[in-house]
Design brief:
70% helix, 246 residues, mainly alpha, globular
Length: 246
């Protein structure tokens, strides 16, 4: 095995190796070691998803108009922030896309922050996870553009405003769009991997007190990278909507 196996990954490999091998074989990606088909980043993604489900399951029955608690206030602040950003960056149509913006922000934020818990790792420090989020954003904004403009007009906008420049602009625009998932992936992966390694290094050398500033920096970077990823997704969505061309 090429990576240190987390305790939770070991549990998955011990009790759920069969289903994992079945899925991997069906997808044409058999595990190198059938006894250990689960990777750390996959199990940590599942843990993040379960944590998010539990958080919102606990929040829902506590929602109150008359007596909102601290838990509700926190998520109301997040909602107001997302709504404001959606309107400012995307425009009037931004609120229609808030569900996706909120989902990508919450998932990446929780994925970034879970690494500060001992014995856990941030799944976003593995390139496959940022790549998956980037491909989701790439697919979403292209779908939003094709739905808003129609497939023909959406493809046509890659040619630019001047027909004479279309042979030049079309390949440039295609390459530019294909580079966006790479840019999103590298930015999130590199920052989270570097932050995780710095924090782990100082915790190994000075296990008491001194790593606290670096953990604070890690938390700041976690919030910042989740915001930047969401912001870039908003910008891409705003670019493909009809009002973005006027």
């Amino acid at each position: 095995m090429t990576e240190h196996e987390l305790w939770i990954t070991a549990l998955f490999n011990q009790y759920l190796a069969g289903p994992a091998n079945a899925v991997r074989n069906w997808a044409g990606m058999p595990a190198e070691n059938p006894a250990h088909p689960w990777s750390n980043f996959v199990t940590m993604e599942i843990v993040v998803a379960l944590v998010i489900i539990v958080v919102f399951a606990l929040l829902r029955p506590r929602l109150s108009v008359d007596r909102p608690g601290k838990f509700q206030h926190i998520f109301e602040m997040i909602y107001e922030f997302l709504r404001g950003q959606s309107t400012d960056v995307v425009g009037p149509e931004g609120r229609r896309h808030m569900a996706f913006f909120g989902t990508i922000f919450i998932f990446i934020l929780f994925g970034n922050l879970i690494g500060i818990i001992p014995t856990f790792e941030s799944p976003t420090m593995f390139a496959a996870v940022p790549l998956g989020c980037a491909l989701a954003a790439f697919g979403y904004y292209n779908y939003a553009g094709a739905r808003a403009q129609g497939v023909f007009h959406y493809i046509k906008h890659f040619a630019g405003p001047l027909p004479a420049l279309a042979p030049l602009m079309f390949p440039i625009e295609i390459i530019s769009n294909l580079a966006r998932p790479l840019s999103l992936t590298v930015r999130l992966f590199a920052n989270m991997f570097a932050g995780e390694q710095v924090t782990l290094a100082f915790m190994a050398i000075f296990p008491v007190l001194l790593p606290l500033p670096f953990m604070g920096l890690h938390i700041f970077v976690a919030f910042l990278q989740a915001y930047v990823f969401m912001l870039m997704t908003m910008i891409y969505v705003g670019d493909v909507l009809p009002h973005g061309e006027h």
